[in-house]
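Figure S4 source data
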Amino acid sequence: MQTEENDRCYLLVGEDTWSKNKWILEIKNKTLTVADEMMNYFEAEDKDITVSKLIDIAETLPFFADKKMIYMKNSGFFKAGKKEEADKFEEFIKNIPEYLVLIIDEKEVDKRSKLFKSMHTKHTVITFDYPGEDKVYEMLEEQAQLNQLNIAPAMLKYFLRNMPEDIVYMRGELDKLIAYTHGKAVTKEDIDKVCVFSLEKRIFELVKKIAHRKANEAFQIYHTLIQGKESPIGILVLIARQYRVMLQVKYLLKSKMPAKEIASKIKLPYFALKEMTEQVNLYTFKQLEEILALCLETDKDIKTGKMESIKRVEILIMQCLN
C-alpha cells in the first residue's frame, strides 16, 4: 500500500465496507464544507461512469469553493473488459487538477493490470480488509454499551460468529436486537428469532448436524432456508464447498500441520477450524470423497432436469446422513 499525505487520488479496495465508508466520510469532511457539497461533490457508479464524463466534471472549476470531490464506485476499469476506457483513465490520473480529490472504490481489481500498477506508483492505494474477530467484537461491544444493550460476552460472541464478515450488516442486526429486547438480557433465543444469520454460517450448521447424524435438525435448517427463498442450487454449492474444505482439513491434519497454520491456509477463523476438526474426525477420507461425488451427481440431476431442485438437495442431505 502506498500512501501520501498530500495525494488527491485514492484507490480503495477490499471487502470492509464499514471502514471504507468511514474513511470516505472523513476525507469528504476535510475536503468540503456542507455548503460546498451540493455543487462540488459528484458520485458515479457502474455504467454511469465514462472517462469523458469524468473529465468534463473534473475540468470544471469548483463552484465558489477551493476544492471539488468525485467519488466513483465499481467502474470496472481495473479489470479486463474495458481496456479503451482504462487506457484513457490512466492518462487522466497522470495529471489531476490541483483542486480535485478523486476517490475510486473498486470491488474487483486485477493487480497485474497496467492501470493498477500506474495507480500504485503515482497515487495512493488503500486496502480495507475485514479486521478480524477480536477487533469486530470490540466495535460491537462499544455499540452495545452506547445503546445500553444488556448482552453477555458469550451471547455477543455467538451473535458475531453467526454473522457474515460485513460490519455494516452486523451493526444493522445488532440495532434490531437493541430495538427488540428493550433492556432485558439478550438470550440465544432472541438472537435466533430476530437476527438473519449469513447463509454460509447456516450451511456450516447444517453440515455439522449431518456429521452428528441429527437428521431432524438438519432438515429443519434446510426447510427454513427454502422457506426463506434461498436457492437450492446456492445451498448445494455451499454444501459441496464445505465438504471440500473438510477433505482439505483432513489431509492437512494427517500431514501434522499445526492447527493455527491450517486455519490460516484455508482462511477459517481458529474457532471454526476447531469445530470443523470435530466433524472431520467423524468421517473417513473415502466417505468425504463419496459425499463430494454425490454433490456432483445432484448438480447433474438438477441441471439435466432429472429431478426438481428442492427435492434433489433434500435427497442429497438424506444420502449424506446415511
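Figure S5 source data
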Amino acid sequence: MLVYRGYAQRAPSATALTIGNFDGVHLGHRALLARLTATAITEGLPPTVLTFEPHPREFFAPGTAPARLSTLREKLELIDDAGVALAYVCHFNARFAALSPEEFIQKVLVDALRVRHLIIGDDFRFGSKRAGDFALLQKSGASLGFQVEAMESVVLEGERASSSAVRDALRSGRLAHAARLLGRPYSIDGRVVYGDQIGRQLGFATANIRMKHERPPLLGVFAVEVRGVDGKVLQGVANLGYRPSANLVVRPILEVHLFDFNADIYGAHLNVRFLHKLRDEMKFPNFDALKAQIASDVEAAENHFKV
C-alpha cells in the first residue's frame, strides 16, 4: 500500500474511495473496506482511503477527545491488510477544517484524489461545521462525474459496531465483547526498550513496550498473547498503567512478562493482544506485597490459557 501525506500528490489514476477516521478498524470499518475493494476490482480502480491525523476531535477538543484505539501506524497496517492500494493521510489542522463542503469536494476528492466511485458510512459528515452530507455528495457527483453510495452500519447483537462501543467495552474490562466488535482481539504494538529492571528484581522479568498511546483505552493487568518473536505466539501477563507501587510514571507503561521465556528481545517490535482482564492496577504497601500479587497474577493468567 502506498501512503501519501496530505493531498498535494495527485492520485495516479481515477480511484474508488472511502473516507473516515478508521480508529480501531472495527467490523463496521472492515465491512466498508471490503465493499471498497470489491467495487474497485469490478470497476478496475485502485481502492483508496482518505483518513486524518490527528483525529478531528483531538484537534477541536484535545482535552476531552476520546482515547485512541490505534496509532496511525497500527491503523494503516490494518487498512493495508484489507487490500487497500492507496492511503492519503490528511493533516487535520485549522486550514483543512475551514474548507467548505464544496471546496472539500472539488479540491480534495475531485482534483487530488480523482474520485470515480465514493463509498461512505451512513453517518459521514464533512467540511466546515460538518455542513456536508450524503445529499450534497450525490448532487456534486452527478455534475462532477463520480458515483456515491452509503453503507449502513454493522449491527452486532443489537449494538452498532463503532469506535465508541469498542472503547466502552475495553474501559469496562469486557475484552471478549471488544474483540467481537473489532473482529479480533484488541492489541497494541510497540518496540521493546530498556526499563529500570524492577520486574527482574521481583523475580518476573518483563519486556517494556514503548507506546505511542498517551491515553490508552484500557488500564490494568491482563492475560495476553504476544507476536513478533521469531514468528511465535507467546503467552504472558501484562500490566498497562502508571505503576503506583514502583516509580509512579506520568505516561502509561506497558510491561509484559512472558511465560517460560528468557531471551534478549530488546529492539523487537511486538504486537500485544489483550485477551482477558485480571484486575485493575493498584498500589501495594511494599515490594513483598507487590511480588506476591504478581505471582498470583501470573498463576491467574496461566489458568486462563488452560481453560
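The chain has ten helices and 14 strands. The first strand starts at residue 2 and ends at 5.
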